[in-house]
């Protein structure tokens, strides 16, 4: 039950993130968004570690190479690709494309990590993907009419998420969730800063950052969408599985839809309701147990 609570909580947080990114990219640039969201997220977890007296657990004998790789593939590269993609496509389409993450997670897990996937898992992934199609009113042309220079970075991001999630499950089991989130976000912030400077984004004007909407977006994306969100995400990977954790990307378009209805008075149509039901069914099927009582997600972990 805790895993499903974490799943839905994370979907609510990340449902807002694509909107925040859309607002911040024109002000900070793609890599500036990566730097600030990673920095604020890392600072939030740093304060948590200090308060809990757990900062001493950041030791020399940690698997630093693995942590660096996950920092690159679970923060720096995918978040940079998402920001680049939202320069050319809508935030709603970016959130929809983000739902390809479970597919990449399952396929890459089978190819690189010898994951044994069960029929109900594949059925859940398929049903969830059908739900995503309903959310866009089955208008597949909308995908192909968009700028592929915006779509391709989004797919690179989801592939990175898929690989990094499987890698984390297999190689970073012994690292606590908060330490894992703090270090990987720190690596993401460092990488974001370096690329921001190289690409000429280091001269960000601070006056626009003081605008209310920009400040809300910055702190919402950094502290909530990066700091707290990654604590939840790594918790689901370690206590559940990479496949289960990445199911959140099926729910993100749903929560984005809910936020839009509540705050932007957007209309929810019948196909959208059907899509929501399909997505919830997909998540349920993917988390079902087999005859032995073990979760399908954890059976092959």
How would you portray this structure in words?
The chain is built from 14 helices and no strands. α1 (2-28) runs antiparallel to α10 (212-239) and α3 (64-85) packs across α9 (177-198). Helices cover 76% and strands 0% of the residues. The protein is mainly α and 301 residues long.
Strand content: under 5%
As an assembly, this protein is single chain
Number of strands: 0
Main pleated sheet: none
Mean pLDDT, as a whole number? 82
Please tell me what the overall shape is. globular
Helix and strand content put the structural class at: mainly alpha
Give me the number of helical elements: 14
Q: What is the C-alpha radius of gyration, as a whole number of Å? A: 18 Å
What is the domain tally?
Answer: 1
- pLDDT < 50 runs, ≥5 residues: 289-301
How far apart, in Å, are the first and last alpha carbons?
A: 19 Å
Following the backbone from N to C, one meets helices and strands in this order, namely HHHHHHHHHHHHHH
Could you estimate the helical fraction of the residues in percent?
Answer: over 70%
SSE blueprint and pairings:
Elements (H helix, E strand, L loop, with lengths): L1 H27 L1 H23 L11 H22 L5 H7 L3 H12 L6 H17 L5 H5 L2 H24 L5 H22 L13 H28 L2 H5 L1 H17 L5 H17 L9 H4 L2
Provide a short characterization of the protein structure:
With 301 residues, this protein is mostly helical.
Key descriptive features of the protein:
single chain; 301 residues; mainly alpha; 76% helix; 0% strand; disordered C terminus
